[in-house]
Amino acid sequence: MPRVPAPTHRRGELTLRQKMLKAKSSPLNSIDQLLPSYLFLITVFTDFNFRRSEEVFGLMDVMLEILGYCDWYTLVSLSRASVHGRFIAQTAIRRRLRPLLEPFFPTEHFDPFMLMLDSVGGGIIGSVPRLLLAQNAVFYMCMVKRGDTSFHAYDLNIVVPYGQMEKCRSWLKQKGYGVWVGVDIALPYLSTVSSFSASIRSTVAGDAPARITISESNEGIFQVVLSSPITAQTNLITPTRIYSVYPNMVHQYSCVQTDRRGLQVTKREDWVPCYLVQKHNMYWGKACGPYCPGLRRRSYGDKGIATFRWNTRFDDRSPPLPMADRVLGENLLLWQFSQRCHNLKCPNYSPSVLRS
């Protein structure tokens, strides 16, 4: 853990701690209250070319309090400021991830769960990564403000490499998930998932049932992420990193589905999604860049995949490709999300007849 420098100030000057405590003296429970504190935080970072940034990083408790109301992009920006900023950002992400997993097992099992997940080479996909990346985005805050509770994790989706299903289930059985049943594999994942099972833990009366699913990949786990028919589900959390194939959309309520025939999303009657599915990317508003749905992409060296090292407790290197992490370096994957790009401002625009 890096040593965080102690704050300093001139005699007679209001200390930075006093300023930051004053900025957060009232509870930040609305967008109107969030903006001034966010602007204050950015002002401190840029003040005098970072000459006072050490004072900011020395106030860990105040920093974490303010970062609790900042979005994902702000956390990433902070991590790039210095080694101290990166440590604070990693700590803030850890504090955000813990509550998202609490509905599925007690918080004291968080570290053992990550240890198990690292031992099997697995990760978390689905709604939990989506929630983590979208927290404190404008659309998220608007939903909270109007009391919309549809944006939450309905289940915990785990993905493991081939041959690791039983080891993962064995650990979860000790946490109350005793009965596992096989589930039909959805059409988009037939070529990448070898088996799929689910379990529901018995809960106290009045509590919502906790459901966990495990997808066993044919090979590596990232190919399962890339098989998703919608961009909102192309995210992954491992015990070391957070991945997003379309980081340009993590702060949007809408997402795009593939135009490949037969792979479109079907809505479940008992489920209110935490995103709005659009049939194309016509309304992106600017050139797609490396995120173009019609672009042929690759897992290793791709400019569009965003990764963040949130946990340094486990080894993350890939022996075949020393410059890559374990997930992106295990297999070189080539894929194309859609057959066409419908964005008029993209060089890859390929007009076609769009069905309503």
What brief labels describe this structure?
alpha+beta; three-stranded antiparallel sheet; five-stranded mixed sheet; 356 residues; 12 helices
Structure description:
The protein is an alpha+beta fold. Helices cover 31% and strands 13% of the residues. It contains twelve helices and twelve strands. Strands 1-2-5-4-3 form a five-stranded mixed beta sheet. It has a three-stranded antiparallel beta sheet with strand order 6-7-11, with no helix packed on it. α4 crosses α6 and α5 runs antiparallel to α6. The radius of gyration is 22 Å and the shape is globular. About 5% of the residues have low confidence.
Q: Separation of termini?
A: 54 Å
Radius of gyration: 22 Å
For this structure, the quaternary state is single chain
**Can you give the helix content as a percent range?**
25-40%
Instruction: Please work out how many helical segments DSSP would assign.
Output: 12
Largest sheet: 5 strands, mixed
What overall form do the CA principal axes indicate? globular
Low-confidence stretches: 6-10, 24-32, 268-272
Structural class: alpha+beta
